[in-house]
Fold these 4 entries.
Entry 1:
Amino acid sequence: MRHGPFIFLGILCAVLASWLGAVVAPQLQFGDQALLKLDDLGIEYPLARNGEAKQGAEIYRAEGCNYCHTQQVRSRGEGADIARGWGKRRTVSRDYLRDLPPMLGQMRFGPDLANLGERQTNATRLLMKLYNARIEMPGSTMPRFPYLFEARKLRYGQAPSTNALPLPAIFAPPAGTEIVPTTAALQLVAYLQSLKSETLFYEVFPPQPPKKTNQVAVAVGGTNAIPTTNALPATNTAPATNTPPATNAPATNASASP
Amino acid sequence: MVLVVLSAGWLLVAGVLSLLAAIKLHAPGMLADYAWLTYGRLQPAAWNAFVFGFASLAGLAIALWMTARLGGTRLVGTGTIILGALVWNVGLKLGIFGLLAGESTGIEGLEIPRFASPILLLGYLCMAAWVPITFGRRRPGEVYISQWYLLGAVFSFPWFFMAGHVMTVFLPLRGVLQIAAQAWFLQNLLVLWFGFLGLAVIFYLLPKLTGVAVPSRNLALFGFWTLAVFGGFGGLTRYSGGPFPAWMLSLAVVANVLTVFPVYAVGQNLLPGLRNQGSALKASVPLRFAAFAFLAYLVAGGLGALNSLASVRYTTQFTLVTVGLDQLTLMGFFGMAALGALYFVVPRLLGRDWPRPAFANLHFLLAAAAVAVIAVAFLGGGQAQGAALNDPELPFINVVKRYLPFASSGTLAQLLFLAGSGVFALNLLLALVACCRAAWVPAAKALVTPLSAEVKA
């Protein structure tokens, strides 16, 4: 038996098979998944990030935040993600269409950040977290990122800048110095605040026979658009035709497949 | 020989990087002012230095040597191999500097930036092409099972390495499909590349040093093909509960559970040979490494299959268990197998014994202790971490306090492992120096034309 070519072909087929099964088949299934129209004005989900937040994603990647933080929410049956308030629904493939690369993460040394922008709207607190996480959370093991900030000497009598960090006394720099965020820090915070995946659309409802054929989309972006309980999206102000049929309503424990 | 020296160098580099990363995990203030030493950069740098620096280079060195040895022939293409090793080395250095400078691709396991990964592939082809070529010149006769595994490894690497980088970095797929490609890559890296290489070593060293032949060739071939076929599918269990269609996750679980077949086949074939081998184990350092690696393989394989089940993942997902299992495969199984093989190969290459046998014993103890600490602390700590994460009433900082002691023991493990590697490197250095002193010319030759003249010995 000719072993070399035989093994070569065998291994080639094996690698090819797993590639076809694990990568190509999914690509054929939803590789052309489209952005979702949320309203008639042309706003599409996932929402586009502005330039600052896009730069921030690059910093998130470069600093390797994803080695400690995930960006994915599992459904209720699979962990306490939703109970912990990390999201109101599980994340689905559509949530990541604009991410390059998507930074899902495999390790939770820190909390999940998939919906950080929903729960943390205070940019200063995020900056403080990056400067030194122990200011707000004694005992935190989150690394410090002092190099994303600049220590500036103040001339005698000069008033501190408006964007200087309001550091408590024990964390404050020596008198006459102020800590101001660099552009990079501001970009990173813009990115963190853009992390939102709570918008509801048909994929995240429990599987039920569709009553209407038109695409269903509700509750555009805004921070509090989605009620916390299992009720109908009460704040839904979208045009009536976009409202989901009532049977699709219980959205918060949705576990449909993406 | 150049390969061995380079891989030993990388072993040290990886050790230092891992140690720093491990310390950073519990001392966030240490060296915080240096951007390129932040945890999120050190961690991937350490992984890549270990995987592509130490493990892959050592694996290739062993593959080349064993192919020649088992085929009863000389290694051909040594010049190109050395060139390839240097190219690979340059590519990896660029890649790791790039990582530390913040140029990571952001895709775990595939972080090597786009300017470096093609260099690595080029270096790989220069080195590995000679495995099948040397294999083709083998003495006629039966083909050992180790040779199957070696060829399997060598043939699989370029495909998944190239495909993995292309689909995530060069022509990225959309959204989470990149993650599917990444999971597929990682699975192939750990299961096919390191799995095959490590098994080749074990199937060579264990029978050779115990004198007990592998009982069933058919069982071994069964193990080979089942691993090849099921091995690559299971990657997505890493993202259990993740944003993927349910069928993808189910397929991965099924494939992962099926990998118990190859694990069983390997265990069934080699366990009997290890019975009553106490004295042989005591006498031979390579055997001890190989036996340890073999046990680590069985444990990692069994637990890996178990950990793919959704009910287990309920607790273990996103915890230290993931790291623990990866490290058990990488350090406990492959690392130990490769070190055992190096202890076996280097004296035959240099034509002289290890200068300090006591060092080798010490190295085994240190490395084995390191793996044991990681396995116990991370697998156990991951359970604690998972249970804490799943308790929604527990504030997050208390979750941190629960897992921190376990995560910190990573520092101890890395320290032990690094000390062991230091001892190994010292021993290797002494061997080389002794070689040089004994005779200038042959030593220079041994450095420049490694692996070739000695294989006949």
Entry 2:
Amino acid sequence: MKIGPLNIPLREDFSLKSILNFEKTPVNMLVAVSVVAMLAMLVIGVSLYLMHGHHAYNVTREHPWGLLIAVYIFFVVSSTGFCIVGSLGDVFGFKDFTMISKRAIFGSIVTILAGFTVIAFEIGHPVTMMIYNVLSPGLTSAIWWMGTLYGLYLTFMIIEFYFLLNNDMKKAKIFGLTGLLVGLAAHSNLGSVFGFLNARTISQGVFYPTYFILTAFITGIFLSFIIMGFRYKLNFNEKTKKLLEGLAKIQGLLISILIFFVTWKLLTDMYGGMPNRAEVAEHILGSGSFWTEVILAMVLPLLIILKDFGKSPVLMFWASLSGMVGIFFMRYNLVHDTQLKPLQMMKVREYQLPPEWIHYFPSATEIMISLGGLGLCVLLYYVGTKAFNLDEEEGH
Amino acid sequence: MARYGMALDYKNCINCKACEVACKEENGVLMGADKHRIWVGVNEISGEYPLLDIVSHSFQPSQCQHCDEAPCQMVCPTNATYYDEFHVVRVDSDKCILCSYCMNACPYDARYVDDRTMTVDKCTFCSDTRLARGETTTACQNTCPTKVRTFGDLDDPESEISELLRTREHFSLKANLGTKPKLFYLT
Ligand code: SF4
Ligand code: SF4
């Protein structure tokens, strides 16, 4: 398809009919029905939000960031992860990984679009944001940097994808590298949104800006297994097996580092019983959602990798699904745990505020918009697989 | 230009909450427990019988500290939170995008969402009500029966507040965070 000077190579059979035309296996039908249901939830959720504003959410004065922030983080981490995995082949020239580059870069675009969709309904005034982000930029604000850099990153990813589609590897590499660097900067800035909260000692510090990069890479690998699993219906050819084995080995290393990081983070949090920090860390250790994160995103996948050093791609596919659920909990925990401890040292009993821990559970609207974001992401990705050839071109 | 601050002789507070009411009335703050710019905190008697620490029991009126190094201002992506010419920390509701970052960054839980504008609101030292009318006191100060509060110019050596801070021992809240609050608690 030609748009002005741009040449976008769409698949020849791409049409509305081709989108609706998929193999009607039970799994596919289940995915299709879920996606439609999730999109319906998005519509309902957004309508409720438009009618009631933030009252439709369970966010409060003491817990102003809720599920939607966690889901936004979940999506943008996924995007950065896809971008890192995509860059392995096409920017850094690891030949075994080139076959996933185009698909991963496309994944990074759809996940960040889903993230932006979700955050648009969390930020009270997204249009004002676009205006005043430019007119009166808050240069000391991590949110300003994160948002601005992510906007740039999306642009670079789209340009890179365009050149990948057109097999212009040289230009794809230039934009890929720039996009990757901007993406990593954006992503560590997202970590610093939490790291800069001096009043919240549990999150304050260098930990999150660096940990975000590590967990992005891990997320990217989980997602690679998932999209390749769907692409080959778990029937991997030799070349794909090689790719996935390589990714699994890297994943083993990364998860081990992550476990190491998290262990030391919690130990330093508790050491010496620093007020506001130690008790929060102990509270986290006693919470089910923390252990869900640990088991689903760290222990299970690591055990499966260690079983035969990443030689079971099918098992890894399942472990990656579990991993992504774990990663969701990881994001949710980050947001919630940051706000667990009430700040008001003076207001011990004022208005009968909860004296110990701030409680929060997402409202139906928040849950619907979040699932809607997931539905949108899957739909966009699916349409992409129909519109573009996301496989590696022969002869490259 | 003046640099406004407030000194609180907090041990005189009797927890009548007249200041909370006056603030809501003067500044049109919406009803509802979590919609408040100022509050009176209660420090309860600590310890266990018979070792009760009776002097630990006190009332502590508080509000936005109008930090000189305000975390809420630093984190604001659109500079909606700014220092006005009197060093009062204010929110420009036209620029506020309700990202809620400031609510999380403020160590004093001094911010809340105003449902009318759907933007963040907080104590303004009555800047756009009483001070704009040319008065020199805030509503909370004016109404306080035991005269806990003294509002004034910290840069004017002759002001009552400067005199108080020169002659009375005082502390600020969470001073370790380096926020340089302009609310001072007289001991
Ligand atoms: S007390 Fe909170 S709202 Fe007030 S200036 Fe300081 S950080 Fe900002
Ligand atoms: S909620 Fe408004 S005032 Fe607060 S940081 Fe965001 S834009 Fe600034």
Entry 3:
Amino acid sequence: MLSVKGLRAKVGEKEILKGLDLEIGRGEIHAIMGPNGSGKSTLAHVLSGRDGYTVTAGSVTFDGQDLLALAPEERAHLGLFLAFQYPVELPGVNNTYFLKAALNAIRAARGQPELDAVAFMRLMKERLKVLHLDDSLLKRPVNFGFSGGEKKRNEIFQMAMLEPKLAILDETDSGLDIDALRIVADGVNALRNPERSVILVTHYQRLLDYIQPDYVHVLARGQIIRSGGKSLALELEEKGYGWLGIEEAA
Amino acid sequence: MSAVSGFEQWLAPAEAAASGLQWLATRRGEARARVQGQGVPGTKQEAWRYTSLTRLLEQGFSAVAESVPLQPEAIEHLLIPGLEAWRVVLVNGRFAPELSALAGLPAGVRIGSLAEILRTDPDAVKDRLNTIAGPDQPLFSALNTAGLDDGLVVLMDAGTALARPVELIHLSVGSETPRVAQPRHLVVLAAGTQAHLIERYVTLTYALYCTNSVLEVTLGAGAVLEHQRIQLESPDAFHLAALYVRLGAASRYRCTNIAVGASWARTDLTVRFSGEHAACDLQGLYLVGERQLLDVHLDVDHCVPRCVSREYFKGILYGKGRAVFDGCVHVARDAQQTDAAMTNRNLILCEGAEVDTKPQLEIEADDVKCSHGTTVGQLDPEQLFYLRSRGIGAALARRMLCLGFAGEILDALTPEALRMQVTQEVGRRLEQAT
Ligand SMILES: Nc1ncnc2c1ncn2[C@@H]1O[C@H](COP(=O)(O)OP(=O)(O)OP(=O)(O)O)[C@@H](O)[C@H]1O
Ligand SMILES: [Mg+2]
């Protein structure tokens, strides 16, 4: 469903992605690991259409469409979702209102009718329960004053509400306590189905105990330098990145 | 050439409204002399530095009084759903009893038309009218005083209470010759009383007209006034508002000022503390777009010790909109332990828009806590991207962020139906901006 070929991208004059290839099939879970600064978040941002990156070569297709030609919202309409490494605070924008606007924008783009208030509330309550989130968070501005862990869980909550076809989770496990990690993993697993794919960007093998990946990739120096199964993550955990011929970031 | 060339027409109805009250004639006459004694302020004058009067003068407004009979159905759509209020409706500055709702006021409370009270019981307002605004009125207040005849009056005796808000609807209806309405409002709350005043300036149709309003407020010891002023004039209109507020000991005054309409608008808010331990909270939101100019002046005078004031104004500018924020907090030598904080935040949505912001503190006392801050910024691209990554289109995303910015002020509006109505109107205007 996602096909990245020879992707090169720059920030300003600095090239960060240097010919990256990645194929994600329907229903698959891929973990991407790699040293700090290797370009993992950059890849996530380029895929979701954030400003400030220049793609100089390569292609990205998503369900057969040229993803790079689309605006960020159009990518979301197609079913792409990014759980941010650093979720953005939106003071004054109510969480419920925000989610409703997002869900209805996606539905409208797909030619589906808007959810009415009752149906929306029901869906929200149901998804909140899965993530053990307090519904007081819904009355607050998006991420504003949320703790680090609450922000991460709110990302997964949004994912659960928007039901994307491809979710990119950029270090969603960082900063979560052990219970929260399990809750987030449960949230992701609850969403698993043969139609839905996930990219997990993580530094820790522990997350992969909870969410079993089909593939593990190592991203370093702007390229995927190694791919394998779950055992690759265990190997990285044990040996670090040195044995792959790259230094770990300081 | 007369120094007030252009404004004679604003003075016209003074004689027409002859009341037979000597004291009133004297006050009007003094104001008239004041108008004639001062020239049209130019941009060299500090208070008008950023705002030229040329455009206002060019319109040739005149103060022709004409009654516009309206059926209650005509204003139904302007009412706030579910709001039960003591309502005074002015049409083009004149009391419209058939549109107002004043039956069954509690004893000791007067709410009604200034013209009517001047006719029936002038002594009730004699000691208050024009005394808060004082003798040194600037041009537009003096113009209002010179022709002073109608407006809202709220008088609450000690020991009285109001179960509902007081709502003033100032409705403007266009006419063939562009006219100026100069309503004059007076609110006097005796010691210990509480009230909620909602002032709304609205129009039935797009029209060219001018409103030059003056409001005088006196709060007795411990009195509390929640005041909301919503300016939704026609996009072509000119709007001038002068508010003079005198705060007694331990009184509380909160003013939420929403300015959305008019092509040219000027607000002067003058607050003076006259007793200790009083607090005032002045906040506002202005939305200024294509062809709009808006000028807010605050003048807060801490002349006694131990009072608290907050001044917090936010603005959203777009198109070729232009705004001025000029706030001054003065702390007199004796006003020790004053606590004052003034903030002005602006969001500029496009390059052509502009704001001049000038918060100032003048502090003569040495034991005070005072601060001021100002920001002028744009929408945050990170926030925009976050919203868009969730499927929300760019225009709506911008609007959501603007409403989020404005919400901090809009959330103060009560009842909820008013907050929603004003928020929707702000959202509607932002559709043109984003
Ligand atoms: N806006 C920017 N301007 C300059 N350099 C940038 C910018 N954004 C990213 N970079 C650089 O690009 C490189 C890759 O950053 P990226 O955030 O993609 O790394 P990462 O693999 O996600 O790292 P981490 O594991 O620490 O999250 C880093 O060296 C970073 O400093
Ligand atoms: Mg990263």
Entry 4:
Amino acid sequence: MGEVKTIVGGSSGESFFTTKFESLLAWARKYSLFQYPFATACCGMEFFAVASPRYDIARFGAEAPRFSPRQSDVLWVVGTISQRQGPALKRIYEQMAEPKWVVSFGTCASCGGFYDNYTTIPGVDKIIPVDVYIPGCPPRPEAVLDGLMLLMEKIQKGNREPVTVLPKVVPELAQLRGKRALPIAGGGSKEGA
Amino acid sequence: MSAKVLKKLQSVLGDAILETSSFRGDEEVRVALKDWVRVAQVLRDDPELAMNHWVDLTAVDWPEREMEGQPRFDVLFSVRSYEKKHRIRVKALVKDGEDVPTLTTVWAGANWAEREVFDMFGIRFAGHRDLRRILMYDEFVGYPLRKDYPIDRVQPLVEYRDADDTLKLPPFGIEEGQPFARVDWEERLAGRDEQVSPSIAVQTGQRRALSDSEIAEAQFAKKPEESAAE
Ligand code: SF4
């Protein structure tokens, strides 16, 4: 939460804290993200993995799927979106109640991926605004959790600018490849899930 | 393997078979379009052939052949026999605009395959009961698997948004979503075209984030002191 002041005292020793209403609201929102999974392709498999006990998205309070856009807060666009699906996706986005966020899961949803042709929308941001991009084909569950944490950070800050899960620097891997890892400045995703 | 299918077909149908080829167990016959359904019926009903497994029907576009005055398309189907364990591919040359008789009367499974060939190549099947597009939408103009369909033509059903919501700018421009084919590699290798998306540039410090007043102007803005409060 934003500014929290804990005050202990009073005649009977009870404690309380003060904060701003907006911060409290954002804090509540970020820990109860009901999701609408719009899973269309292979990325869907990895999405199920994220929800499985091993990665346990419930830790973040984001495990409840709602298959009604009216009841959901985050639209997860998971997989390749064809031109033919565009109207359905846009309509679902429009049916969601504010405040709403969109996560673009995987390369296909983020930019069309290798489907550079007549069938595929080159990134869902061409039709709806996106908050978090998670690259990868498919992204690993760790990257997805990174994306979710980025989204929670955004919600807390009230920041609407899109963010992208950045690649992680794994020194051991760079060593194996015989190269120095490229430094990534200021990335929000360096601390793992 | 399936070479005996060729022999049998030649003995039963004789002059209907225009050409045969056999390559490592991959047998093919070419027939004229007028014998298309007759050949299919023989393949299904002859007890020695007994082709009861409809595999697929597809087409190939050869635009250069049309310039030489020959039919532009190959239309081919594959069938197989579960009991005899043999298979065959049947091919016919089809001119642009020429109708192919439907095979749905012989194998019901031909229904969707013919719709797909119609959808992708614009080849019509005479006698098909429900010849509609199957994969593309009705608004789609043209036939995408014809070689003269422009490789970069898209026909969106939803108009692409052009960053009306300034705080959620798409990282790529309208023309940049699919970077693989459209990157100017010479520019990029020379370092003139970095193609860093705005959101990544902000995160990595290569571009400044929007200032408070810019944020306040935008539609979904929070008040400046609130975004600074964190
Ligand atoms: S990004 Fe890769 S894994 Fe995900 S939907 Fe596209 S092709 Fe499938």
